[in-house]
Amino acid sequence: MDFKNAKELLEICEREQRSISEVMRQRECDLGEIPGDMADHKMNQVLEVMRNAAHQPLKNPAKSMGGLIGGEARKLSDHAARGKSICGEVLERAITYAVAVLEVNASMGLIVAAPTAGSAGVVPGLLLALQDTYKISDGRIVDGLYNAGAIGYLAMRNATVSGAVGGCQAEIGVASAMAASAATELMGGTPRQCLDAASTVLMNMLGLVCDPVAGLVEYPCQNRNASGAANALIAAEMALSGITQLIPFDEMLNTMYAVGKHIPIELRETALGGCATAPSVCEFCGACAGER
Amino acid sequence: MSFVSVFDVLGPKMVGPSSSHTAGAAVIAYLAQKMITPPLVKADFTLYGSFAKTYHGHGTDRALLGGIMGFETDDIRIRDSFKIATERGLKYTFTPCDTETEVHPNTVDIRMENSGGRVMTVRGESLGGGKVRISRINGVAVDFAGEYSTVIVIQQDKPGVVAHITKVLSEANINIAFMRLFRESKGCTAYTIVESDGHFPEGIVEPLRENPNIKDVMIVEP
């Protein structure tokens, strides 16, 4: 079984009355030529690396290689522990885990690219937050990862997930679309609602540039992982409420890709524009160049 | 087009911070070192596009050096690859090139030299999400991703060489997934790249070499 776009995926789901995660798992078994339990075993390993990366900085905050970030996840969790969170539990946890994963990544620790390293916090952030709040089993979270994988596969196949090619919308945007679709399925949405949620995210993050300060995958990348998790939650809530989208996911992917090609080279991971050239940043870089 | 697995999307498991600039770089160098007999004594890296501009901050240099020493993307030793290279007596240089712009944004040229004085150059492109493409070997345009078990045959562009290759593979009962031929120009050096779903046994190298027009045979496992 295979599908080339979201339209075909949806046809399979509706014809066979199966979820996106089930179809993606079947595709992995068929084309990857591995039995289902081995695929699930590998996916559980993915989940374990994700979970470790999401929790480690809460106990042991670490300064990043470039010194731009470190300790943010701990601040968020301490803030929530004091009863001060204004986000509500799911969102508060989601952004905490999302920034935690980026902290691990930026200190050259072990993470799972999802779909990239710079966007690695979004999917685990939201899924682990939903697991905490709604007591979802690991088995179901693994389903959510297959669902997210389907969305990411379509983006890799039909557009891009590289910030150097399509800007941050291709990294955080796609990660957020993956998380939105997975969250929608986990919370009882239909395959069509999953794809609508993914479409909503790409729409809301369209045009986002990739402008890493000092060329490091740290800042504003970490902030944007938090915003990617939040955008995913918004889109999932809208889809679950029954709001439908005029623009289907395939079209939004094409749109995202077309917009990405129009983003100037300075705003595609070259650190030559955007946040990377704000005056305060140049001051910071000057200081750190002096230290080196 | 090769199969995109769910574990390509949710993966690789990798040492940060960038799938294209750290993990992808490590994969390119890892594949490159598989094409030359160890041990390496020198590795020179020329970086293009975004690689040239941001390689230091992304740890691209550590990842390339780690890959050339055989470290995989989730090998935490990548952090310390400068130190490890020095301990192993491997010399290395990194040279950003800003003048050549007609290349994929994340491109690296790797020049390797082994203890026997043999030199080999490989160009790789990091496509995002840890995916890569090898686009040149010794200056000849090629195209493979290193996702399958791959045999690279360096040969003289003469009749009968390809037939010899397919005969040897057929006798070893190997199912060919992809097979492509690349050459400098007519009669010069050519490269046959064969990818298989299974694994190429080491035992096929000798029979392949029996053809006098075959100069070298390399097996690259993913």
In short:
Chain A has 13 helices and one strand, in the order αααααβαααααααα. Chain A is mainly alpha-helical and 292 residues long. Chain B is an alpha+beta fold and 222 residues long.
Report on this structure.
- The complex is a heterodimer of chains A (292) and B (222).
- Chain A is an all-alpha fold and 292 residues long.
- Chain A has a single domain (6-291), classed as 2-methylcitrate dehydratase PrpD (Orthogonal Bundle).
- In chain A, 66% of the residues lie in helices and 1% in strands.
- Chain A contains 13 helices and one strand; from the N terminus they run H-H-H-H-H-E-H-H-H-H-H-H-H-H.
- Chain A has helices at 6-16, 20-32, 36-59, 72-81, 89-106, 122-134, 138-158, 163-166, 168-186, 191-204, 221-240, 249-262, 279-291; one strand at 110-112.
- Chain A starts with 5 loop residues before the first helix and ends with a helix.
- Residues 287-292 of chain A have low confidence and may be disordered.
- Chain B is α+β, with helices and mostly antiparallel strands and 222 residues long.
- In chain B, the strands form two sheets. In chain B, strands 3-2-4-5-6-7 form a six-stranded mixed beta sheet. A four-stranded antiparallel beta sheet of chain B has the order 9-10-8-11.
- In chain B, strand 5 (119-128) and strand 6 (131-137) form a beta hairpin.
- The chains are: A mainly alpha (292), B alpha+beta (222).
- The interface between A and B is large, with 61 and 43 residues.
- Strand 1 of chain A pairs antiparallel with strand 1 of chain B, so a sheet runs across the interface.
